[in-house]
Amino acid sequence: MVDGPASVTMTSGKAAVFGLYVVGKIVVREGKRLPFTVEEAATFDLSLGEGASSEEVDGDTVPSSWNKSFEELANVQAEPSVVMVMGGVDSGKTSFCTYLLSRMLREKSRVAILDGDLGQSDIGPPCTVAYTYAAKPVTDLFNLRAKNAYFIGETSPAGATEKVIEGLTTLKKELLANSPRYVIVNTDGWIEGECAVKYKMQLAEALCPDMLFCIQQKDELAPLLGSLDKFRKIVVESPQVIKQRDQEKRRSLRELGYMKYLKNAKVQSLSLSWMKVEGNDTFGLRKSHMSLRQLGKIYQLLGMKPLHVSELPDRIIVIIGKRRWIGQDKIQKVEEFARKKVVVTRKGEEEGLLVGLYDSNRRFLGIGVVREIDYVRNALKVLTPLSEEPSVVVVGKVKLDKNLKEIPTVLEENHVDFASFKTLF
Length: 425
Hints:
It is built from nine helices and 24 strands. By secondary structure, the chain is an alpha+beta fold.
């Protein structure tokens, strides 16, 4: 077992990683563990980075049930055969998908991978679901290049179940156009609780897998297994040598993903006049149809002219300067006049928001990070490596600092907290 960051070169013998025979140098990225199954006496040249380690263990690092699962799958007659992999956090789902992929490609099958784990994305950028076709076996799905992705804008499906299901069903329909023999669907590790079980049921019903592989360490999947009676299920062992990662390590892996997809990024100014904006409504970027009379009345009740006012079906967004504030009594007067909740946001709180960028045909182009919303010039300044100008911007709820590290976001509420506001001065 090798924990990255490391590189492994086999100088003699015979060994495999997830069914892929080792030839040349294998790179193990930070936060990942790879099992090298020795089939003939082998010699390895290891180069270990900071925090990396290696360990010899007795027995096969790949559970025997994995091979049996592949044999079951090979007997499925449906074409394409859609398989879905479920399991808890750090249960070995991605490793199992990688193993299936290698075995299928050894049989010369055309395989598509649909990655539904937006919090630990391997195929596409973090906070997306994505797919690709594999031409040759790999030891790490992270090395594959996405064919297309769907931006969710969050690291967990808990607050975006409908959007995740919509994204995965849209991508599945698209990838089937190229007639793969197998489609492997990897999922996130949210399995505990009534909401998680309901979500996984809805996901299975939407994607209609021919076979469900359920990776279980003990009996944590019992509630889920009992709810998926209509599907053919195979319970698979979780590897005993699986590496458990804490929340900080999982965040660090996402941050490596942000760096990968924002490499060579530059700040671009995008005109909001013709561009469609979707997603997070906190900053009032959607076009408002409020009349001049209504705006005038709101300015009067607030006792000031904000930088921007936008009306949504259920609320009114008011953007004010960094060092300005509005009394709660004035906010209440506007709410009574408009009969809607008023959300006050300060200029600058938009900085760092992750966005998904699409072309006019709704083709995913990549991600970016908001640097500023210029309400005077009606422009959005975004840090992105894209060369073409997008037609659609989807604003997410994840925020990154200048070093692309995740930071807390401001909640959608009347966050005019006078005590904390005073600390700004």
